Amino acid sequence: MAQSPVVSENQRRAVVSVSRPPAPSEKAFDAAFKVIAHVFGAAVVVLLGGIVFEVMRHAGSAMSDYGLGFLATSTWDANRGEFGILAEIMGTLYTSVIALVVGGVLGITVALVLSQGFVPRRVELVMKNIVELLAAIPSVVYGLWGIFVLVPALRGPSNWLHEQLGFLPFFSTRLSGPGILPAALVLAIMILPTITAISREAMAAVPKRLGQAAYGLGATRWEVIFSVILPTASGGIFGALVLGFGRALGETMALAMLVGNANVFGWSLFSPGITLAALLANHFPEAGPAEVKALMYAAVVLLLITLAVNAIGSFIMLRSTRELKGLH
Amino acid sequence: MPSSVESADASTVTQPALHFSFANRRTFFDSFLTVLALVLSTVALFPLFSVLYMLIVRGGAMLSPSLLTELSPGAGMEGGGIGNALVGTLVVVAISAALALPLGFLAAVYLAEYGGESRLATVVRFSGKVLTGMPSILAGVFAYALIVVTTGGFSAFAGGVAMAILMVPTVMLTAEQALRAVPAKMKHAALGMGTTHSQMVLKIVVPTAMPGILTGVMLALARAMGETAPLLFTALFSDYWFDGHVGSPIASLAVLIYNFSGSPFENQVKLAWAASLVLVTLVLVLNVVAQIVTRRPVEH
């Protein structure tokens, strides 16, 4: 046997060393563990595939029943079996865009303050932790805060704006309670940590000497920021915005609690509206079989929109990190 | 009007202005933007303080032993607590942890130790990232389609499955990072001693990476605890105590807050604030524990 010398060698060495070749049982365990690890790895892919397949399967009959007209009409009437999600799609995009503008401006500003030496290091660290805390608070708590703090606080200024500038479509109604603006503002707070964290990383990845070279030429801090830091980090910042937008599109609770759940779309910031996720949250618990199918169709639309936005965001991030590699 | 910087470029004989003055357009602009940035940052962080203030004032006012031990009150009823919701949250999170932790952990072991840059590993990693970005309500839709429709009713188990889907990618991606950070020389030393690959992984790599893995677990648990959307139409809600039966609907803090937030009854609104305080405290404690676990030095 070819193995016998090895075994005897091993037995001889066992006296002086703990090392030895693995026993057959250990080899079997090793092979089994390898297979198990592969199976669980593949299971994650199966999980994602299963989610897409299962939702699609349940949406199938609704997709063939309602066709693309589902996306272009705004009725949601379970009694008459008429379903359409145009108002939901528009409402989702509208609230998310407003949240992106507000959350983007604030998020990038916070990222600048945290990365460009505006405040002492210790303050920077405290602020970074506060931003992380912001992300840790559950969205349903933000919703509760929105109902009892934000909406009452916004009512006065909103109605003043409506009286002064009511001829603009954005201010054409009064804010009576929940509406687009409070929902979008809470959404902005919720995506701010994502935007800040990712764009701060992109800004920190800009080589120090680039900024210092600009300072050496006599540039002020904001000239450095606008002409060196932001352009160099633009890929990462853009990726952060897209990923933040993706989060805003899929956020449910804050919207279900604050957007008003009126099945119409209007440009007024103060009017109630609805979003895809809020529709699912509101109608699923009590839906009958026909309505469930329509809701599954709406879920497919939400899934496709968020998948597309996230894929674009990840792709931009990947490209920007590759581009930055050349600068180091 | 040519600015000072342009004239300085044009003729090198101009003396630079070495005194600080807001009359200089560039200086003014710079200071103005700095002030604006600091103001905007304060505005951005203001909501957090407002939320915490409201939680302490409105939620704190309700704190009492009976809050945690009594059943949630129905419409118009006085008193009551959030005991069943607290227990329900813990039960649902426990179910989801039991499902998600083995899956996420072993998938991470596969990625870090076996997958490398292979095609399957790339697909697994991509799937994990897609799952991270997927709206949480879609996890609920999936659990509804898979379990609620087939079993014919809302259940704690369906809620646990929906939650588990949200935990898997967090656990997997953080655990992979932690496993990859284990120095190669430790692995080589173990293999040199004659261990099999799996023995090396289980006895050397995993214990060394444990703080990092636990951080991911804590963050995933914290996230799951606060999630509401996937529970709305899977676990639903219940006004009674958990009876040890995972096949029936169950209460949770998050859904209680949602249901009571729109209630016309002052008592239920007060309980929503109290439940928020308890929920945020739980989530923050998990986050702090996660930070402490990460910082703990690893003994080699």
- Structural category of chain A is mainly alpha
Q: What is the topology, as strand order, of the major beta sheet of chain A?
A: 1-2
Number of strands of chain B: 0
Largest sheet geometry of chain A: 2 strands, antiparallel
Question: Helical amount among residues of chain B, as a percent range?
Answer: over 70%
What's the gyration radius of chain A in Å? 27 Å
- Give the uncertain stretches of chain A in residue-range form: none
- Tally the helices of chain A: what do you get? 11
H and E order of chain A: HHEEHHHHHHHHH
> Which range does the strand content of chain B fall in?
under 5%
CA distance, first residue to last residue of chain A: 57 Å
The average pLDDT of chain A is 87
Radius of gyration of chain B: 27 Å
- The topology string of helices and strands of chain B comes to HHHHHHHHHHHH
Return the average pLDDT of chain B rounded to an integer.
88
Quaternary state reads heterodimer
The helicity of chain A comes to over 70%
Structural class of chain B: mainly alpha
General shape of chain B: flat
What profile does the largest beta sheet of chain B have?
none
